[in-house]
Amino acid sequence: xxxxxxxxLKDALEEDIINGQLLPGAKLDHDALAAKYGVSRTPIREAIxxxxxxxxxxxxxxxxxxxxxxxxxxxxxxxxxxxxxEGMCGRLAARRIQPAELEALRAALHRCEDSDVMSDPDDxxxxxxxxxxxxxxxxxxxxxxxxxxxxxxxxKPYRRLQLQTRNRVSTSVNEHxxxxxxxxxxxxxxxxxxxxxxxxxxxxxFSDFVxxxxxxxxxxxxxx
Amino acid sequence: xxxxxxxxLKDALEEDIINGQLLPGAKLDHDALAAKYGVSRTPIREAIxxxxxxxxxxxxxxxxxxxxxxxxxxxxxxxxxxxxxEGMCGRLAARRIQPAELEALRAALHRCEDSDVMSDPDDxxxxxxxxxxxxxxxxxxxxxxxxxxxxxxxxKPYRRLQLQTRNRVSTSVNEHxxxxxxxxxxxxxxxxxxxxxxxxxxxxxFSDFVxxxxxxxxxxxxxx
DNA sequence: TCAAATAATATTGACAACAATATACAACAA
DNA sequence: TTGTTGTATATTGTTGTCAATATTATTTGA
Lengths: 224, 224
Known about the structure:
2 copies of one chain form a homodimer.
Chain A: H1 5-18, E1 27-28, H2 30-37, H3 41-54, E2 57-60, E3 64-67, H4 72-96, H5 99-117, H6 121-138, H7 142-159, H8 166-184, H9 188-212
Antiparallel strand pairs in A: 1-3, 2-3
Helix pairs in contact in A: 1-3, 2-3, 4-6, 4-7, 4-8, 4-9, 5-6, 5-8, 8-9
Chain B binds a DNA duplex through residues 2, 4-6, 29-31, 39-43, 45-46, 59, 61-65.
């Protein structure tokens, strides 16, 4: 399958935004990008338009297009919704999970625990994602899974700001353990609540951090 | 504020899809649309690309672009998520609603009741939307409200298939009354559950209907 | 010095034309 | 009939160019 320049551009920019290569507020200059990637303005333009629809990029009319910088309040709102979606995944997973899926989830949990022992936050970050992905799958609602993943991506540029202390990781693993047990036992309500809290704690810790960094909401960053 | 052709096209197509002028599966021919709206292919192309991102349109490579025809299973999944989002709105509204908002909700409820008396389904449809919009606002989570509205739009092309019996309308109003009371009394859990059910009942009735119409999933419709 | 008017510039939108690719169709052969 | 090959066609992607509009910079006049 051959993908168009527009699609490749879109993916590349999305990556850069999610991974923090392009910080919120950074300007996306059409001509500069066209030069960088060796294409004309059209595919750039189209890629950016699509990113606008999905919410990762915003345009200020006649001022330029910028990596979306979501305000503090909206960030809280987004975490609130994220928690709800994750909770729903947990509830459905507790009801619908299949034996093989349960084993996959157990394995993912163990990998989280291992990376905890080694105190490698980056590794944990990946395993953590896998754990949650297992729950998405087990919810047997692929539309929900897609929506959840999409929202998580939109939040990622800001989760980099979270402080990943050793303590937080071990706490997180404990939460995972409780979530797993609830799903294993088919306790829908418990699984939902645990997952909601799990996400909201992240959100709270995050917002505590952000509210300390006063410069955040106002700083205007340019392209590196 | 001046809107571009691309934006106008996008809105126009969106409207046509949501209101059933363009049925799921209908082909969107670039050249035909360009001729119809008297513009070149570029704005058409860009408008369509954006609709693809938001899920209303799909492209089959080298076969053409079509109004998205979501399968029966995915439709169920979407209703499941819709119910969750509406339930969340209700829960938050019960906690956060302001006096003025409560009065607006009460007024919307009364308008639903009135349109029930007159047995005018079309009118009820509109007032029903207003009622739910009031709840969205009262949730004080504008991100959630946007997501809910967006998903509702994606479902709209299929809700046309629902049978709007007089009976259903009066039942619906009763549900609205219970929802309103729960929100008024600040009963978060009750409001959430009532709203979830309210949506799921629609979804169930709908799926009952769809599963009878065998031809639905397979029929390939062309542009009118 | 300040403010209004004007010029220069950047952003954005749109078009026509060209190019590449995959599909559908038809002619042909087995 | 069935299958294969080649040709025509439709779809899709990309480019260079032009045009419209708003912002920024500069000049001008008081």
